[in-house]
Specification:
single chain, alpha/beta, Rossmann fold, Hypothetical protein af1432, 2 domains, five-stranded parallel β-sheet, two-stranded antiparallel ribbon
């Protein structure tokens, strides 16, 4: 099988390449013009593609236009519809009208990101590009990059993690002590002085709070020199959110240096989502039962736990077995919601926090689609479109999303929130390192 993959997103290209390269030649391009050129060259050299995957949202010429041009090229060459190249459209945004228009233009299927091996291979079987489901299931259980099963005689690392998690055997981390004490004080109705007395016990947090209060984002006429002055300027709500961010930052570490970049990207994404959640809340004048900032901060905590567990198991594994990056991303996509919700439940957070952690990528999966869930879902997508924690920005029209529309998050508000998120990340992130 010969496959052409056109996607601006580097991670998606790599994932598709890892899936398809064991089935034959796989050509990768990052724009639609190169895709059309590659398609024509392959045809003219009597070595046409069997499958083309096109990301719908790309700059200059989007995937739908490329789909139309490819079908026009085939029609011009007299190719009958039943023998035309199979074309799968990929999108992160499941919009009914977009999907219908793609089908009308002649695509064979639409795949929603993030995708996995199982999804792609089953599509190949459905469209006659693989012979039977038995082969697909065998392939799904293999590590295609090494030509052997993931587990071999020994259970694979990811399979072991999933098994341990389902049995409740994963040792979930503890909530940082200062954060736990702070929550207890606030829950008991503590005043600013009692809060200050607690925070003074942690010199690092005290110092950072003073620095943040003197930042250009919060700076007043007089420079703050004491923690009491800093709390007075920031206020109880902002102080609480900042303490949560500082304490949460301490969790984003890994002893396995291989995963440092992933952990840092997760931290950047979580912090930006926290700011975005708070700013969307303010923009829409919503009133929630729980703190939007902290919900945004914790929404992807399950991914952090999975990466840390993978790193620890790899370090302990005397065989030197390592995780296929594709397998790691698939596991994170599939299980981080359950892992995060289990962790927040252990930490004693409210059911609304737990629901947000489990269903922020797919609100429709929840029995109760609360405003908190809608808010973090939108904030999560918003900062992905800005590139925070991503190799490349996510390309979606958030204003057209049904959940965003239900909240009242229009293009004007989205633009304003993005501007404010950028300001906060540029000014405040350095104080939280």
């Amino acid at each position: 099988m010969k496959t052409l993959v056109a996607d601006e997103d580097l991670v998606s290209r790599k994932k598709m390449n890892l899936i398809m390269k064991s089935l034959g030649e796989c050509v990768l391009v990052d724009n639609t013009q190169d895709a059309i050129t590659a398609f024509e060259q392959a045809w003219n050299s009597d070595s046409p593609f069997d499958l083309v995957t096109l990301d719908i949202y790309m700059h200059e010429m989007d995937g739908k236009e490329a789909l139309n041009k490819i079908r026009q090229l085939e029609s011009g060459k007299g190719v009958a519809r039943e023998t035309q190249v199979k074309i799968f459209m990929l999108t992160t945004y499941c919009d009914k009208d977009t999907i219908i228009s793609c089908v009308k233009e002649g695509c064979d299927d639409v795949i929603i990101k993030p995708f996995d091996k199982s999804t792609i291979l089953k599509k190949l079987v459905v469209h006659g590009l693989l012979e039977d489901i038995d082969y697909t299931e065998s392939y799904i259980g293999s590590d295609s990059s090494h030509g052997s099963t993931v587990s071999g005689k020994k259970e694979g690392i990811l399979k072991e993690i999933i098994t341990q998690f389902k049995r409740g055997e994963i040792d979930l981390p503890a909530l940082p002590r200062i954060q736990q004490k702070y929550r207890e004080l606030v829950g008991a109705g503590a005043n600013l002085q009692e809060i200050a007395d607690l925070l003074k016990q942690d010199a690092a947090i005290s110092s950072k709070l003073i620095s943040i209060s003197n930042s250009s984002y919060y700076r007043g006429v007089v420079e703050n020199k004491t923690l009491d002055q800093a709390i007075g300027r920031l206020g109880l709500e902002t102080t609480r959110q900042t303490v949560n961010a500082i304490a949460n930052r301490s969790l984003y570490v890994t002893r396995n240096k291989k995963y440092t970049d992933i952990v840092e990207a997760l931290w950047e994404h979580s912090l930006s989502c926290a700011y975005a959640s708070q700013l969307v809340l303010e923009s829409l004048n919503l009133t929630l039962s729980d703190d939007a900032f902290t919900m945004g901060l914790f929404h992807d905590i399950g991914k952090l736990v999975l990466v840390q567990v993978v790193g620890e198991i790899e370090e302990k594994d005397e065989t030197g077995q390592e995780i296929d990056p594709l397998e790691l991303f698939e596991t994170m996509d599939t299980y981080h919601g359950q892992t995060g919700s289990a962790l927040l439940k252990k930490w004693g957070f409210s059911p609304r926090f737990i629901t947000v952690a489990e269903y922020h990528d797919d609100p429709a999966g929840s029995d109760s689609i609360t405003d908190e869930l809608k808010l973090v879902y939108c904030a999560n997508l918003l900062v992905k479109t800005m590139g925070y924690g991503q190799r490349e920005p996510l390309k979606i029209d958030l204003a057209a999303d049904e959940v965003a529309q239900e909240l009242g998050l229009d293009e004007m508000k989205i633009t304003e929130v993005k501007k404010n998120v950028t300001e906060q990340m540029d000014e405040l992130k350095k104080y939280l390192e």
